[in-house]
Amino acid sequence: MLNVALPKGRLGDQVYALFSKIGYECGAIYENDRRLVLESPENGVRYLLVKPSDVAIYVEYGAADVGVVGKDILLDGNPDVYELLDLGIGKCRLAVAGKNDYVEDREAVLRVATKFPNVTKKYYASLNREIEIIKLNGSIELAPILGLSDVIVDIVESGRTLKENNLKVLETIVPVSARLIANRANYQFKNDVITTIVEKLMEVLPQ
Fold first, then answer.
1. Region 166-195: what's the mean pLDDT?
2. Residue 97: helix, strand or coil by DSSP?
3. Cα atoms in the Cβ-side hemisphere of radius 13 Å centred on 62
4. Geometric angle at alpha carbon 24, from 23 and 26, rounded to 5°
5. What does the alpha-carbon distance between residue 2 and residue 145 come to, in Å, rounded to a whole number?
6. pLDDT tier for residue 33 given thresholds of 50, 70 and 90
7. Angle subtended at Cα 193 by Cα 189 and Cα 195, rounded to the nearest 5 degrees
8. pTM of the entire structure?
9. Largest CA-CA distance found in the chain, in angstroms, rounded
10. Is the pLDDT of residue 207 over 70?
11. What is the torsion angle, in degrees rounded to the nearest 10, for the CA atoms of residue 186, residue 188, residue 190 and residue 191?
């Protein structure tokens, strides 16, 4: 069976809808229980329900053959996987944001709160800007409000959360969308089935 790391939540629902369209339905998905491994032997697929930020880890270490993860995770974690396809869903952007009245002091070290330290370092290094990174795991928007940081680097979708907290996007670093990834070794062993999946997905992806 093909092991698919499926991100929990709204993105996972969108991904499953795509996979079911190409013949990888799994009725157990709709059962209201707490199982994290769901199988459909008749369709040759096993879904592993994992936290979105962990998908790449499961794929990199071979617990899953393929998975779907945001480009932001790939950029920041740089996992050793094959990136096969841009699914064109889960679209958002990785951006710098700050308070509405924020004015940057170019003479001072810039304090940046983020859960994407590697992308943030690379971005500001490209600008020759000295920064101090404050690694946070949630409620990033609080950091500039409380004076913990000057700005934040975070995922922005609609921008509503920023607006409601009197923050705004200052710069866009990179657009983000969901990507199909594969374990390097398993891609060789299951090349036929994974290649077929890529081809079928390309036929049903939103244009």
1. 96
2. strand
3. 7
4. 125
5. 46
6. confident
7. 95
8. 0.89
9. 64
10. no
11. 140
